[in-house]
Amino acid sequence: MKRLLPLLLLLAPSTAFAHAGAHGATLLSGFLHPLGGLDHILAMLASGLLAGVTGGRAVWTMPVTFLAALLAGAGLGASGIMMPAVEPMILASIVLLGAVVALRVHLPPVAILPVIAIFGIVHGHAHGTEGPASGFPGYAAGFTLATAGLHLAGLGLGRAFKGIPARLLGSGTAMGGLALAFV
């Protein structure tokens, strides 16, 4: 039971979508914001993992596409423009990106980059909606840096663990997304 408790706490809804606390208008508060939600951490690691196992130009096109879309989505959210199904799409990003890695689905850039952009927009929208009313540029720079760092971590894992280990990481990510959907 002692070993199960930390896992249960990680899967608790308040941890999954918390992004808890007041959001200050600083680089640091923006940086810490995505690190406070398991949903964002898993999606960013999975996105980087996919870029890493895909290789080639995907190593930079996937993360850059995601980050550009993240900022666009944050602008929409900060402007008060509502989007439907943001949280379900965030969960879908975790499951889908993890499953693509797990199943070794090789999609051409014309197919995967628009999907990555959509996921970037919804993650950004969530950050923009939850962000501060003033001082948004510093906050946005912070969550963009944290997202890029998580992408780099996933990219490193994808480059280091090819084949079966990467597929297992993708499977674990997809299952983590499914678990979050039911808490």
Describe what you observe in this structure:
The chain is 77% helix and 0% strand. It has 183 residues and is an all-alpha fold. It has one domain (23-181). Helix 3 crosses helix 8 (136-160). The model is unreliable at 1-22 (pLDDT under 50).
Keywords for this entry:
disordered N terminus; 9 helices; single chain; mainly alpha; 183 residues
Low-pLDDT residue spans: 1-22
Distance between termini? Answer: 19 Å
Q: Total helix count? A: 9
Q: Main sheet? A: none
Structural class: mainly alpha
> What series of H and E elements makes up the topology?
HHHHHHHHH
**Average pLDDT value?**
87
Overall 3D geometry?
A: globular
Our count of domains comes out at 1
Percent range of helical residues? over 70%
DSSP E strands, number: 0
Radius of gyration: 16 Å
Strand content: under 5%
Please describe the topology of this protein.
Blueprint: H1 4-10, H2 13-16, H3 27-35, H4 38-54, H5 58-78, H6 86-102, H7 109-130, H8 136-160, H9 164-181
Give a short synopsis of this structure.
The chain is mainly alpha-helical. Helices cover 77% and strands 0% of the residues.
